[in-house]
Amino acid sequence: MAERGFETEVIKKEKKNNYALACSFIASFISILMGYDTGVMSGAMLFIQEDLKVSDAQIQVLAGILNACALVGSLTAGRISDLIGRRYTIVVGAAIFLVGSVLMGLGLNFAMLMSGRCIAGVGVGYALMIAPVYSAEISSPSSRGFLSSLPEICINLGILSGYLANFAFGKLPLIYGWRAMLGFASIPSVFLAASVLMMPESPRWLVMQGRLKDARDILLRVSNSKEEADERLGEMKATVGIDKECAADVVAVTSKHHGEGVWREILQPTPAVRRVLIATVGIHVFQHATGIEAVVLYSPRIFKKAGLVTKEQQFLATIAVGVFKTVFILLAILLVDRVGRRKMLLGSLTGMIASLVGLGAVLTVVERSEQRLVWAEVLCVVFVLSFVSSFSSGLGPVTWVYCSEIFPLRLRAQGASLGVAINRLMNSAMSMSFISLYTAITIGGAFFLFAGIGIFAWVFYYTCCPETKGRALEDDMMEVFTRPGDKKPEQN
After folding, report:
1. CA angle (430 as vertex; 373, 68 as ends), nearest 5
2. Distances 83 to 21, 59, 319, 336, 367 between C-alpha atoms, Å
3. pTM for the predicted model, two decimal places
4. Which of 315, 289, 320 is CA-nearest to residue 301?
5. Which end of the chain is more exposed for a tag (fewer CB within 10 A), N or C?
6. pLDDT in tens, 19-28
C-alpha cells in the first residue's frame, strides 16, 4: 500500500490531459440540455398556467413528469450503452431530447406539451446515466473527480441558461414567450449529436468488446504518457479476464462482460457489492429528499411568498440562484480530487441544513405577518443562495462522481442506470409534491422537514460512504467496501 501511495502522489502531480477534458466536456454537454429544461420550466410554468388556464395540480404534474419519464431512459440506457457503446448512446439521448423540445416548443395544447416533456424526460434519463460514466471511464485516477463532475457543472450552466431565457423571452407576447423558452433547447441538441461523432469511444467499453488495439490508440491520446496508457490498458484487460501481456489487436471476451447477467449480480450481490448498492441508493435518495427541487423549480414561488411581487423581481432573484449554483459547482470540481468525496459531502450537508432551518424560520415569520417585511425578503434570498451554494459545493457534483466510480466495470453501466432511475424517481416525487406539501404544512414547515431529512442524510453519508479519492477504477475501488470475513468477490 505504501507503493500505491507513492504512485498516487506521482499521478497527482501530472497535468490534466486536455484531450480527455475536451471529450468529457462534449459528452457532458447533453447535461446542459437537461439543466436548461429544468431551469426554464421554473419560469415558463407561470406563463403556461396563465395562457393555458391549467390548475396547480396540472402544473405539478408538468414539472415532475420529466423525471418520471427519465426512469425509462435511465433504466434502458445502461443496457444500450453496453450494446452500442457510450458514444452512440449520447447521440440517441440527444435525438430523443430534440424531438421532445420541438413538441414543447409547438405546445398547441396541454396534451402536446405533456407529450413533449415526457419524450424529453427519456432523453434526460440517457443524459444523466451516460455522461458521468463516459467521463469516469476516459479519465485517469488523478483527474477522474474533476472530469466526472463536468456533467454537474453542465447541468448548472443549463439551469442558469434557462433562468436567463425566462428573463429574455418573458418580454415576448404571452402566446409566444413560454413556447420560445421551451423550444430553444432543440438548437443545441443538433449541435451535440454532430459533435459527439468526433469523440472517441470509451476505452473501457472497447476492452469489454475485445478491441484492444482501438482501446490502446485512444488511451495514448487521453493519458499523459505512454507508460500510463499501457498501465491503464493492462488493468482493463485484467478486469475482463484478458492476460495483461496479450498483444493481439482483437480478442474474444466472455459474455458476462457484454452486460449479460449483470442484473442477476446486482439483485444477488456479494457483501461488498451490497454495500455499493446501499451507498448508491442512499446518496441518490438524499440528494433530492433534502429539497433541491423545491428551490430550483419553484424559486419564483418561494420569492413571491417572501414578498417579491413582480415577475421581474422573482426572475432576477432566480438568476442569482443560477449564478451562485454555477460558481460554487466550479469551485467544487476544482477541489474534489484534492479534498476528497466524503469530506465534501459532509461539509455540503452541514451548510444545507443550516440554510434550510434559516429559510424555514424566515418564511414562517412572513406567513404570520400581515405587513411587508423587507428584512425577511432579503434574508429569504440570502438563505436560498446559501442553500444552493452549499448543495453545489458538494452534494450536487459528488453524487455523480461517487456513483460513477464505485461500481466494478462489469456492473458500472447498469449500476449507474439503477442509480439514475432512483435519482429521477426522487426528483419526480419532490417536483410533483412540493406545492401540495407546503399547502398542507406551510412553506416554512416544508423547509423544516427538509432540514430534518438533511440530518439523517449526514449520518448516512458518515457511516455508509467511505472515501474513494485516488483509487483506481479497476484494481482496488472495491477494497473500500470490503470488510474482514467477506467472501472474496469475483475479479472486478
Report:
1. 145
2. 25, 37, 40, 31, 54
3. 0.69
4. 315
5. N
6. 888 888 888 8
